[in-house]
Amino acid sequence: MRKGDLPTRKSVASEMGFLKDPYYQPFYKMVETSKDTVPSFNLNRNMRKVYDELAVTIEKIFSEQADENKIKEYLNELVTTCKRFLK
Prior knowledge:
Layout: H1 10-15, H2 25-33, H3 40-43, H4 47-63, H5 68-83
Helix pairs in contact: 4-5
């Protein structure tokens, strides 16, 4: 595994203590309930636009080395913009 990767096998995640770690628990809970047969971009015809907006926002945050307040502002703008795509 590369540094920063999370194991997707439940047995490996359990061995590494991730399933009991409050920081990682939400990720593993989401993995348990996610549909592995239908990618999210197939569930909504506008997902590509959402991914594009997300990429732009992440780029803005990192390129500007934004502080916490600016990050919150950018993420709130992202949510507002993407809501119209996900109706």
